[in-house]
Amino acid sequence: MIQYGFVIFDVGQLPNKAEYTLLAEKIILLLRYPRYLLLMKTQYGDEAEILVEEILRQGQDTASSVIIRAAARLKETLKVEKVCLATLRDKFSLLVNKQFLMRCPSPGGETGVPILTIKENLLYIPPDFNLKGLADKEEGKPGDPGDEGVYWRVNLDRFHQDFRDQIMVSAISRHLDDNAAELLKHLLRQMYLRTEAWAATSNPVPFTELREAVRKQSSHPLLGQYLEQYLKIMEEDSSRFISRVGDSSGGQYSINMKTAFTQLTWATIENIVMERFGSKAARIFRLVRAKGFVDQEQIQQVAMIPAKEAKLLTYRLLEENFLQMQELRKSLASNVPNKTFFLFHIDLNQVARMVLEMCYKALYNAMTRREHERYENRRMIEKQQRIALITMNMKEQGATAEQLAEIEEMLTPPEQALLEKVRTMINRLRVTETAFQLIQSVMKRVTAGNPDDAATKALNMKVQ
């Protein structure tokens, strides 16, 4: 579990005894592994996907061992006799340069509990090993690739950074259009040149640099023509993803990461209220959000909802913890009649934590239901897999169409209909899991600033 990063250790109360801590967040991230691999496949190709998958399987490993296993898998997949090891080495180095892979800390300390340390400037230096020794080792001959003792692991925080950017770009694309999304991509690229990836607000990006980047790299001609207009629209938009700095011509622009995810969180929670309680409840929720603190009479008057229905919906939102109530006394003196006001308000952090808990429960329910469907129909699924395997073998042996049709008829029409129904159900549950993971990602940014970064730092890797 230490190798996979699920457990960390540190010196305990006794100097020679270690204390172990389970990182629940790291275990939950197992659900994101398919998304990590899909990102690699779409951005860097099949080789990168296999390299990352091999490291995820082992937790951490040497570059030479990962490349040899990846070469064996590629041979089996592509059905070729030889795979270029230099190509895999270059792909591995590319992933290191892009910071998707990082070196593991090494144990230090002469006695007692070892301390895992690594110098910061060594984290993302690509591996340098002997290709001839690597080729000999692949063929089963004695060989020394030259990277013994240097282990690598996946930098999950780098993947989460890309997921965060995708969420923001997708939100802008739906809210405005594709040109605005392309502009945000360029702003993010410029931001990384001068700002830490997880900063709440980026350092200002000069308009001239942004215009030059759009002119050289963008495939959207309208964006270059109306760049200033798009910047102005995004600056004045209620989502406040970007803000202008300075009054000079063109000016400079900053990306408000924290504000952007706060706005996305509000939008997500409002949609949840709309789906669960209806449009009138969503109107009350938006009213309380806009007013900050509001009493029951104001809700009835401003929301334009009948008093009885408004009270029912308000207290239902209160019961479900989407609203909170603050008691306010007009006077604390004991000799005068005391009047108490009850004001409704929204604690965003509390609501976000509650929605996060809902996501965890829904994820568990979806996974349990998926396994139940697979278990209940396991015999039919196994039968379909056997028929598919027989069909594939018969095709390789040159079977005729009539023979293949006869084999496929082993699965009756009712069985085929049931299998299709089960397959559709399982696919829907998988999509549901992905959707809840996206909501979970947004909520985490608000409830704990950046929990994924905190979890990464929680690994006992003291940068020296």
Automatic annotation (TrEMBL):
Residues 146-264 form the RNA polymerase III Rpc82 C -terminal domain. It holds the Pfam family WHD_POLR3C. Keywords: DNA-directed RNA polymerase, Nucleus, Transcription. GO terms for molecular function: single-stranded DNA binding. It is found in: Nucleus. GO terms for biological process: DNA-templated transcription. InterPro entries: POLR3C_WHD, RNA_pol_III_Rpc82_C, RPC3, WH-like_DNA-bd_sf. Residues 269-346 form the DNA-directed RNA polymerase III subunit RPC3 winged-helix domain. One of its GO terms (cellular component) is RNA polymerase III complex. DNA-dependent RNA polymerase catalyzes the transcription of DNA into RNA using the four ribonucleoside triphosphates as substrates. Specific core component of RNA polymerase III which synthesizes small RNAs, such as 5S rRNA and tRNAs. Component of the RNA polymerase III (Pol III) complex consisting of 17 subunits. Belongs to the eukaryotic RPC3/POLR3C RNA polymerase subunit family. PANTHER family: DNA-DIRECTED RNA POLYMERASE III SUBUNIT RPC3, RNA POLYMERASE III DNA DIRECTED -RELATED. This is DNA-directed RNA polymerase III subunit RPC3.
